[in-house]
Amino acid sequence: MAAHRRGWIIGGALAVLLVAVLAVVLPRTKAMPVKDIEVRGAQQLSTEEVAAATGIAPGTPMGAVDTHAAAVSVAGLPWVETVTVSRGWPSTITVDIAEHTAVAFFTGGDGAHLINADGDEFAVDDPPPGAVEITGDAARGASGDSGGSSDSGGSVLRDAVEVAASLSEPAREAVKSLEARSPHTFVLHLADGATVVWGASEDNANKALALDTVLQREGSEFNISNPGQITVR
């Protein structure tokens, strides 16, 4: 009886060991291949582009996939802000990405340079709806076309981006461009031909509210440099 019990114990231990070995070995064999790469969060990028950037070929054993290397590769795509690559057993690799939001852009010789709300230039690409074009001193300084110092141009550009980032969504749709007339004077050119003097990049939240009010009024020239006292011509 004792020998019979020992046989069951040994058999059970061997079965557990076999399952453990299979759990380690099978994922690294063709028996458990990658069948699908699921991309989530892509808007400006195509799912095909992101999937290709992982470098993971269909049929690769799931256990042999280097998810860290795949994530690093995808992070190299200009639009990608953050990325996570994970396994979805038994056969799916999932790529979760968050893309940059382009709040502004300036046009250089090589195209539109897209800038996020932090003031970081992240891609040269077609500007999406809602991105405000920055013109004037800020754009020239950023692109190196200005005779001034690059530090000065960069400072003006950062201020211009802060203005653009403060605009509400309806205001973005109404603004054609943001002109830096001087380091402390920004002027909005609206799609309907009107202009709005913003002034310096300060008190931007209140000026953004004032702009929303201006968009409901008739007029061709507005000044909201003092948001508590809007002037119109």
From TrEMBL:
Transmembrane segments: none annotated. It is found in: Membrane. InterPro entries: Cell_div_FtsQ/DivIB_C, FtsQ_DivIB, POTRA, POTRA_FtsQ_type. Residues 135-155 are annotated as: Disordered. GO terms for biological process: cell division. One of its GO terms (cellular component) is plasma membrane. Coiled coil: none annotated. Residues 32-100 form the POTRA domain. Pfam families: FtsQ_DivIB_C, POTRA_1. Signal peptide: none annotated. Keywords: Cell cycle, Cell division, Cell membrane, Membrane, Transmembrane, Transmembrane helix. This is Cell division protein FtsQ.
